[in-house]
TrEMBL record:
Gene, per the UniProt record: artP
GO molecular function, one term: ATP binding
Gene Ontology CC entries for this record: plasma membrane
Protein name: Arginine transporter ATP-binding subunit
Location relative to the cell: Cell inner membrane
InterPro entries (alphabetical): AAA+_ATPase (IPR003593), ABC_ATPase_HisP-typ (IPR030679), ABC_transporter-like_ATP-bd (IPR003439), ABC_transporter-like_CS (IPR017871), MetN_ABC_transporter-like (IPR050086), P-loop_NTPase (IPR027417)
Transmembrane intervals: none
């Protein structure tokens, strides 16, 4: 991986909510085709960190480059940049008043300027890829949580992203629906999609992650290969976390 170009470059990112510092000096790089899992206890800053990558969360110090473009440069067109970085949230964020096909096409037409026909063709191709072709004319409320999350992934992929960000994509799902979403993510990883995933699914991390970032109290405590993280004794805080989550 070291010869692959850096897609996401975070340098000394710090963020405050008024007097409270939520991120402290966070530095890491994610290369093209790399899958990086970000984990840690609740309130450790994981979701805040991943949201800084496409400018959803502003930050007060440091620099983020995505494919060489600076997130914090006032001249950067954040909407254009966000269209190239797919984001899948904890709660699917589908438009409830639009059917699935419309959910898949609206951003392609409005942001990328694609024709309705081209957007529909691409959206339905990705819907098929996540195994939901039969549901194209349904509305989000007619689908299970797992199905809605797979639609959200298909929608993000329809924008031809250079990288995908996942913010706890399975945490709002019933246990039996988690695997259907993880299976799609595993397939994406195998196909070489650059991915940054905030998740507690350690089985997924073991299966597909190249690296694991462990955060605590707004700091990156560990940033290492998955084998090092799971097989070599880590620092005490990471060890406590692993013992709790694995047993």
């Amino acid at each position: 991986m070291t010869d692959q170009k850096v897609m996401i470059d975070l340098q000394n990112i710090s963020k405050w909510y008024k007097d409270f510092q939520v991120l402290t000096d966070c530095t890491t790089q994610i290369r093209q085709g790399e899958v990086v899992v970000v984990c840690g206890p609740s309130g450790s800053g994981k979701s805040t960190l991943i949201k800084t990558v496409n400018g959803l969360e502003p930050f007060q110090a440091g620099q983020i480059l995505v494919d060489g473009i600076s997130i914090n440069d006032p001249k950067t067109d954040l909407n254009k940049l966000r269209s190239r970085v797919g984001m899948v949230f904890q709660h699917f964020e589908l438009f409830p008043h639009l059917n699935i096909t419309e959910n898949l096409t609206i951003a392609q037409v409005k942001v990328l300027g694609r024709s309705e026909a081209e957007a529909k063709q691409k959206g339905l191709a990705y819907l098929e890829r996540v195994g939901l072709s039969a549901h194209a004319s349904k509305f989000p409320a007619q689908l299970s949580g797992g199905q809605q999350q797979r639609v959200a992934i298909a929608r993000a992929l329809s924008m031809d992203p250079i990288a995908m960000l996942f913010d706890e994509p399975t945490s709002a799902l019933d246990p039996e629906m988690i695997n259907e979403v993880l299976d799609v993510m595993v397939q994406l990883a195998k196909e070489g999609m650059t991915m940054m995933c905030v998740t507690h699914e350690m089985g997924f991390a073991r299966q597909v992650a190249n690296r694991v970032i462990f955060m605590d109290q707004g700091k990156i405590i560990e940033d290492c290969t998955k084998d090092e993280f799971f097989d070599t004794p880590r620092g005490e805080r990471a060890q406590q976390f692993l013992n709790k989550i694995l047993h």
